[in-house]
Batch of 2 targets.
Target 1
Amino acid sequence: MKNMNNKVILTRERIDISDVLNRVSKSEECGAVVMFIGTVRGLEGGEKVHELNIEIDMDVALETLQKLRQDTIKEYGIQDLVVVHRYGTLMVGDTIVVIVVASAHRKESFDACEYFIDELKRIVPIWKLEKRENGMHWVGSEWLK
Amino acid sequence: MKLQSSENHIGGDDVIKVMYFAYLKDITGVKEEWLEIDGNLVRNVLNKIFEKYPKLKDAPIMVVVDKKIVKEDEVVEEGDEIRVYPPVCGG
């Protein structure tokens, strides 16, 4: 995560929130910075979760996120957007994703941030395998039953 | 249906590389394989997959070619890699 011009990052390492904030470009007109942090829940469907394994189709995910970032900046008129997403093994409470959006006023940042995380969940090839107290569970695999 | 490993693949415009992700690998038992396809549409590839793995029929799977989500009526070309995803759930 050393190149500070890198605005879309997929990493196995723990996310440093201040590092993500420092990557956001802001002009003098910027008056709002909104951050979303997604974390590992310790309880799902009444079952304890001990661990989360995140799998990513790296090349496609990177390109999809880069395009989504560009589209979001254009659509919402925001100044910048940075996203960092983890993969590999995470523990309960760990940060999965951080999205930071900067804009002149708060409304466009809130709206852009919500749109970005909704789209990320809809189209970016990322999957979660939970290690629960009663066994392993792929998130979103209920259709198999 | 003819199935070849990537090592044995010797070409042919009706043979397509298909890659499976996340728990689809558990269902198919392979990460990737070469499938002989009748036709040149994404739909034809899906039909072949459903024929081989009936459990995936009517599944809410997503198909990606050249890093883009494709629809069933889009054309598949020689050399394309077909990525088959179960529903994604990042964030």
Target 2
Amino acid sequence: MLHFTRWKTLMIVGVCALGLLLPIPNFFSKERYDRLPGLLQHHIGLGLDLRGGAHVLASMNLDELKRDWYAKLTDEARKRLREAKIGYTGLGAAPGGGVQVRLGKIEDMDAALKALRPMSSSLPNASIAAAGGSDIDIRREGNDLIMIQPTEAGINARVGQAISAAVEIVRNRLDPGGVKEVSVQRQGNDRILVQVPGVEDTKDIIEAFNVAKLTFHLLHPSLSPETMGARPPPGYEVVPDRDKQGVSYLINMSPLVTGEDLVDAQPGFDNRNGEPMVTFRFNQRGAVLFGRVTKENVGRPFAMIIDGKVLSAPRINEPILGGSGQITGSFTVEEANRLATNLRSGALPAKLTVVEERVVGASLGADSIEAGKRAAIIGMLGVAAFMIFAYGLLGVFAVIGAAMHVVLVIAIMTLLGSTMTLPGIAGVVLTIGMAVDANVLIYERIREELRNDKPTISAMDQGFSRAYATIIDSQLTTFIAGLVMFMLGSGPIRGFAVTLTLGILTTVFTAFTITRLLVSWWLAAQKTRKIEAPLSYSPARNKMARP
Amino acid sequence: MKFFKGVDFFPHGTTWKIISWRYLFVGMSWALAVLSAILLVTRGLNYGVDFKGGSLIEVQAKAGTLDVGDLRSKLNALGLGEVQVQGVGVTGQEALIRIAQQKGSKEVNEDKAQSLANEKVKASLGDAVSIRRTEVVGPTVSAELKRTGVIAVIAAMAGIMLYLWFRFEWQFAIAGIVALVHDVFITTGMFSLLWYEFDLATVAALLTLAGYSINDTVVVFDRIRENLRKYKKMPLEQLLDLSINETLSRTVLTSSVTALAVLALYLFGTEAIHGFSFAMLFGIVIGTYSSIFVAAPLLLFFGVKRDWSGVKEAAGKPAAATGQTGVKAVAGKPAVAPLDKADKTPAAKDKSGKNTPAAGRA
């Protein structure tokens, strides 16, 4: 157990050397780091809790997404049936999701199914044969009813697309140039996680979750919310003003032109009064539509609606034919900038609601790093003092092993590009204690063997070999707990799980190779034949009666 | 060559009759467990924002100290329901503000109401303080985190129990898991008693604790198994006592070094890991206690297989891990894995050249 072949020794020394070298880039300045060859460009990232920054988790409104989808399906079904000249008596939302059509004549069933079938499209890489591999399922139900219902896979694909699109849009809004360190990721089924280091206010991030739908609507020609009676006339809705409290308008909900036809939006200043505003430009289709509408409605007010709020409701003084216009309102410069960016990046597929928000100030982060370092150093010193007091030279070996364990954890994290968090530091400190646990088990076993009058070498050999399985057993249980945390935890807890599990692996390595190698070197250095035990041991107080 | 060989300060060869006092210890543990249960039922836990939802704002006075009482009355006058203000740290400059989860109304949903409340609090804090940290957790996320936390604790325990079962006989696995549940449960009870905040970090500590507190138990169990093979005729009570006493130095010393490292975290870490390190520290202590005074006595209660010789001779190898008591394991379960594993360790050791009568471990 205490003999090492030459190549084994070399390998252990090599691993240690590598462990010492790998973390070096972490200490380089940015410029120096960038000049390193790509192979060496590995470093540990600092979690937001250490460097300061904002973490915002938003959840997408899936009901809204589905509602929009079903509305589109309804429209399409209506169009297709009309084209096929098939009469229907009822078309609308089906109980349990999707759309249902009740045909006028049962004889039309086959024709109707044939007309509607192209609505479903096959999903990319759909391996689920049971679902037919398509996004919607169109089938006859009962006598005269056709159900157009999304499949499970269809919904998942739809949600997936929507989330991916939203991730892109949010990223573009937060970081139009792609230069900032903004992380936007999908999390779970319907969530988006945004992490921005160095930011202490989540306002801008939350602003990026706005839908940014720009639409143009006509107002009701004669009625207003005050005069309309109990309920708005069909096709109309009451929409509040964005800025003026209590002001609202009676809006025709069918949009004249939508933001989809927008090609550009830029912040600017109104040259009449110098106020911030946003200018926009339509594509050809939008320009034609907008031109026609404004021509037909000269003298009537229309409303610009952004994200469900009326921005302004000016009167159309003359037809706007050029396809460009401006949005004025009481904007601040930042608001105008943001609105322009949001309009440019397009509308989000559905509403995003913030469900979790964590912000750490940079000063707290710096304090946490300091505190973490202090705790690690003091912990290490305390453990070292204990080990050297209890085990002398062998204690020193254990401390070297424990120090190497810290180095190796950092080296592996560097290699993997993992993130260090505050709980991660706690994990490192905790595993320092656990690392020497293995040594305590080994050394106590050696003492026990010595007490039973074993010769030094045999006692030491036994100490290592007998303790081996116990250490594996005990470390594995902690490893299991670490794995569970890694799989189920998120953010900082995951950071803890990373250092804990890595720490357990390196602990076993350092206790069983590094300290053992040091011990074997020490033994080899002994010139005398009868080697004196490197551990003191007190004789047992009284031997237990053993049969 | 002269060098320091360390001080073997821990008494060896002790003959403490722990097993004969088992009713006392088991009774004590029961009392603690029942007390914890009562506390958890009547008082509950002081859930942090992670599990309760709501917001947490950590503030620091820009100059001088913070008047916590003044802050409290100022913030509670905002009409946002319960606003807790708690001074933290040693300098008297910092405080934690907790705002309960706001109820949604027709116009604003819960999340929006919460962010409005945060704005109100921040506005009324003024310029005298700087905000160091804000955490806002909505009701859906907090419910999810709670559920995941519970699943994680159960999954970790199940994993550990399965592992113990493969390595030892079922009696050991059950005794080990009882000791483990004991540790985690009483630590949770302690959080209720002291009304310390119970958050995600605490759950992480409980999970780590589950993995760690079993370590000492494994050390004791390993020795019990070793001695079962060594002293075939020794009465079980005496054998358990012997094993506990023999491993006492290991159980206590390993826990002490780890506790030392955690103590550094507790004393020098920041507010955010205070709860974590407290849970670990307390857990290590109670875990060591349960390894010595609860797990082994439980084995007496469950009984263990004594006749290891038969297996040894029949198999021509040192005792295998599964045996007569493990009939079920042989019949219904993948018996190959435990057998294989258990065979390897002692056999491998024998190969290492140093033959000792007992195939055992540290």
